[in-house]
Amino acid sequence: MNLSMSEMFAHMGFVAWFVIICLVVCSLYSLAVMIDRFTTFRAARKQSLEFLPALVKCLKDNQLEQAVETSRKYKKSHIAKVVSAGLMEVLNQGDEKSTRYDVGAVQRSLEMSSALTAAEMKKGLGGLATIGSTAPFIGLFGTVFGIINAFTGMAATGSGGLAAVSAGIAEALITTAAGLAVAIPAVMSFNYFTGQQERFQIEMTNSSAELIDFFLKRREAHGSR
């Protein structure tokens, strides 16, 4: 038997094809998540770098309403989403000139917004982790079933030796190779995006802490007058 790839695919059984189709679907899903997370994280990074100088200027001028309006222009920035929640809480307690506000409520708003933003950034990463851990086993299932069929056929025909089953085993091993081909990029991208998400989480936490410090200093400065 010709053991070219085309011949192997042509002689694969129903189970092997079912496994291959499942792996193709998993691969397409992984690719979609990779593209989506890459574009989302890249936009978040870019807009956050643009937003921070504008935010600092507004805070120095005590223009809280302007800071909120500025944050709305950077809808994909993770820092803008968190900071906007804290600023809105302060404005809801009074006007932008007032320094009588509940810092604890502001901190809770920042923490809630940070948690929601972090959860939004994790979108699809659970699927990548699942595919990365299960794809090799899906491929292995096809391989085991293919080897069973190869030895069953050998027993039915009464022929023996490696030559009688080598073609069937080679065809069966395609599913294992396909499973690994799907799992490796999924695991690598999951680790990369998880690292990026953790970095964004640290940035949101630091931004929240700095905003709380700004409001505390602002209130102390007003009280000392």
Q: Which class of secondary structure composition applies to the elements?
A: mainly alpha
Query: Over all CA atoms, what is the radius of gyration?
Result: 28 Å
Overall form: rod-shaped
Beta-strand percent range: under 5%
Number of strands: 0
Mean pLDDT across all amino acids? 84
Proportion in helices = over 70%
- Weakly predicted, low-confidence segments: none
Largest sheet: none
Distance linking N and C termini: 93 Å
Helix count, per DSSP? 7
The arrangement of helices and strands along the chain is HHHHHHH
List keywords for this structure.
0% strand, 7 helices, 85% helix, single chain, 225 residues, mainly alpha
Structural commentary:
- This protein is 85% helix and 0% strand.
- By secondary structure, it is an all-alpha fold.
- The chain has a domain at 26-132 and 183-220.
- The protein is rod-shaped and about 95 Å long.
- The model has no long low-confidence stretch (mean pLDDT 84).
Q: Summarize this, please?
A:
By secondary structure, the chain is mostly helical. The protein is built from seven helices and no strands. α2 runs antiparallel to α3 and α3 runs antiparallel to α4.
Question: How are the secondary structure elements laid out?
Answer:
Elements: H1 5-10, H2 14-60, H3 64-72, H4 78-93, H5 103-121, H6 125-157, H7 162-223
Helix pairs in contact: 2-3, 2-6, 2-7, 3-4, 4-5, 4-7, 5-7, 6-7
